[in-house]
Amino acid sequence: MKWLQCPVGPLQENAYILSNKEKESLIVDPGSEGKRLIHIIEEHSLKPLAILLTHAHFDHIGAVDELRDHFSIPVYVHTNEQDWLSDSTKNGSLLFPIGKEVTARDADHLIKEEGCLTLGGFSFSVFETPGHSPGSVSFYNKEAGIVFSGDALFQGSIGRTDLPGGNHQQLLESIHKKLLELPEGTVVAPGHGPETTIGQEMDTNPFLSGF
């Protein structure tokens, strides 16, 4: 599996375009700049299968409808945030001075529990990692050694917990009990900022010491 990190929008949220040898593709967190993401996908002759959302904050969902309509693909989100896509208060777009409300239509599929998610030639372990938001999930591909952590874990930092539904202690528990249990060489592909590894964050992340 290959992946391309695409920082988009005013908050430079990381959208990810995943692909395999069969040219199948998944889109993770298309937060903005839908036309640019479409161009990248078509430039590489990829065949998108679905959109996966680590959570439903506005900066992660802004291009969802544009991509889902262009490629006629379904959207997956955790059931705890099924109504956030259409609610600009819950998804946070009304709380930030971005000049517009951000909404999307309801997801096609709800993630209701942890487990295996297989789409075409892609297979992920889905971890519930709430704390930044109540429906935050992380997608782990063991074969590629990568976890898409959304806004749970960053290089040298963790997700903010002062937005609706945030819980600092819950986030720390999610990180320690789910993400830090992965092999230390696992690449962490976060919702903002550069990629890192589980081992690097175990050794250097100041927010994870003393838990």
TrEMBL record:
GO terms for molecular function: hydrolase activity; metal ion binding. InterPro entries: MBL_Glyoxalase_II, Metallo-B-lactamas, RibonucZ/Hydroxyglut_hydro. Its cofactor is Zn(2+). Residues 197-211 have a biased composition (Polar residues). Keywords: Hydrolase, Metal-binding, Zinc. It comes from the Bacteria. Residues 189-211 are annotated as: Disordered. This is MBL fold metallo-hydrolase. It comes from Bacillus taeanensis.
